[in-house]
Amino acid sequence: MLAAQVIGPGQVEMTEQPLPEPGPGEVRVRLEGCGVCASNLGPWSGPEWMEFPLPPGELGHEGWGRVDALGAGVPHDRLGERVAVFGGRSFATHEVVAQDAALPIPAALGDRPMPAEPFGCAVSIFRAARVEPGDTVAIIGIGFLGAVLTQLATRAGARVIAISRRQESLDLAAGMGAAEVVAMADHGEVLEKLGTLTGGQGCDVVVECTGYQWPLDMAAEILRESGRLVIAGYHQDGPRQVNMQLWNWRAFEIANAHVRDRATNLAAMQEAMRLVDEGVLTTEELLTHEYPLDRLGAALDATRDKPDGFVKAVVVMP
């Protein structure tokens, strides 16, 4: 099989590897593609704690494809099934996973790209937010996750206020149903605008999707008393400081929306694919950039640099 291997900071090369064989209860998936996650950018930058080279295919955890080999004990009818993969080495042409980590893709989706894992992440975040009809929900950072959350919260009957840096991100949020959009430029101006939009009361729920300090500070300042602050951004670059006096006094509920429970992740992926199948969630406007596997480095750079029109990149297999 072919696999992309990150060999150093900002460096990737293609390698040939033996074709893996599935063991008991496992399946091998001939991958069609894999999404590129913003969480890949930390390792891609080469932090001190990373050891290179990474194993072939590693960092890829948003794969999909067709089952092409079965281990002992796996029903024969799974052969040829189109599946979304919950794995960790999907920047390759093949990956072996436990049979329950290869989730059937609804037939109605045809051959559409289906990186179910990030859509499942959005579903888990939305569950943690516990949005109710009539809530005012601010979403800070409209990338892929922020856009999907805008769709979900709007569908749940919430009034969504989207806050983001790029105008095209705000336009995307408006297209996904956001009632208002606010440019994330000057801190004071954002607070003033949110105060006006909420009648000085603050938002019922704020979802922080960026993973940076300033938006985390902002999230607390625009949240009402006893509101819910949902941490969805991937804070992977070290400690954070919070205004604990503000957090205590306003009696915030803090929800860490990151999920490490395997069964919960699998269930969220299944639910996400059902929502795509039902037309509740869109994929076409979100999977904006496609790269061949041997250009994984360019896909990672685009995820970091966000060229015009960028929301999310996928790599496709040869």
From TrEMBL:
<keyword id="KW-0479">Metal-binding</keyword>
<dbReference type="InterPro" id="IPR020843">
    <property type="entry name" value="ER"/>
</dbReference>
<keyword id="KW-0560">Oxidoreductase</keyword>
<protein>
    <submittedName>
        <fullName>Putative oxidoreductase protein</fullName>
    </submittedName>
</protein>
<dbReference type="InterPro" id="IPR013154">
    <property type="entry name" value="ADH-like_N"/>
</dbReference>
<dbReference type="Pfam" id="PF08240">
    <property type="entry name" value="ADH_N"/>
</dbReference>
<dbReference type="GO" id="GO:0016616">
    <property type="term" value="F:oxidoreductase activity, acting on the CH-OH group of donors, NAD or NADP as acceptor"/>
</dbReference>
<dbReference type="InterPro" id="IPR013149">
    <property type="entry name" value="ADH-like_C"/>
</dbReference>
<feature type="region of interest" description="Disordered">
    <location>
        <begin position="1"/>
        <end position="23"/>
    </location>
</feature>
<dbReference type="Pfam" id="PF00107">
    <property type="entry name" value="ADH_zinc_N"/>
</dbReference>
<keyword id="KW-0862">Zinc</keyword>
<comment type="similarity">
    <text>Belongs to the zinc-containing alcohol dehydrogenase family.</text>
</comment>
<dbReference type="GO" id="GO:0008270">
    <property type="term" value="F:zinc ion binding"/>
</dbReference>
<dbReference type="InterPro" id="IPR036291">
    <property type="entry name" value="NAD(P)-bd_dom_sf"/>
</dbReference>
<dbReference type="InterPro" id="IPR002328">
    <property type="entry name" value="ADH_Zn_CS"/>
</dbReference>
<dbReference type="InterPro" id="IPR011032">
    <property type="entry name" value="GroES-like_sf"/>
</dbReference>
<feature type="domain" description="Enoyl reductase (ER)">
    <location>
        <begin position="8"/>
        <end position="315"/>
    </location>
</feature>
